[in-house]
């Protein structure tokens, strides 16, 4: 198994005949206008698309990747709604909470629900997207998830069992220490650590608590030090401090930069 990281929560996982994409979102930073995180050269080879929620950095290109790859999309049931007799998904580039997009292939699940798809089992994991604190110069704006807010819409984590390996991806979430104890000992845990300033996810200390509860074999911290808007890091974190804390628990931690690949042996 090979795991390649593209920043934020964007990953490609290659295992056997499968190429799993997690959160094919976009980057919006200075003069870049929502450029893709996952390279377009990889889109056609993707076999399955996992969406943790509807924020642009996680979801912006989902329909485009699905169209080119013909891959099924796996997401929370709340990402879909019946509109005039048609089942439509939250529009990746629609303004606000608008259900405008029809996917050719889509599988949905809820928290603690397990589905089987193409030889994999996938279980929905309880997560909660936190409020987002944005600071631009002297101004501070706080956006809170809610019925009328796009932020964090459809949030869910995934416990993916593929070819005998378990990958646990938590998307953007606050700490759910007790609920996550049922997902113990995955081979890989992908966990956000950049919530100290932005507050939309766990910070380093909270993520270490989660690692202690989940007891993974390998941890990959993500969704921190991400560029966005006019900041080089909307959600700063000290990844080395996190790695030391994880190491003190006897758990391996891999710090990945955008473009890095790691091999998971023993498949």
From TrEMBL:
It comes from the Bacteria. InterPro entries: Metallo-B-lactamas, RibonucZ/Hydroxyglut_hydro, UPF0173_UPF0282_UlaG_hydrolase. Pfam families: Lactamase_B_3. Residues 7-223 form the Metallo-beta-lactamase domain. Gene3D superfamilies: Ribonuclease Z/Hydroxyacylglutathione hydrolase-like. PANTHER family: UPF0173 METAL-DEPENDENT HYDROLASE MJ1163 (PTHR43546:SF3), UPF0173 METAL-DEPENDENT HYDROLASE MJ1163-RELATED (PTHR43546). This is L-ascorbate metabolism protein UlaG, beta-lactamase superfamily.
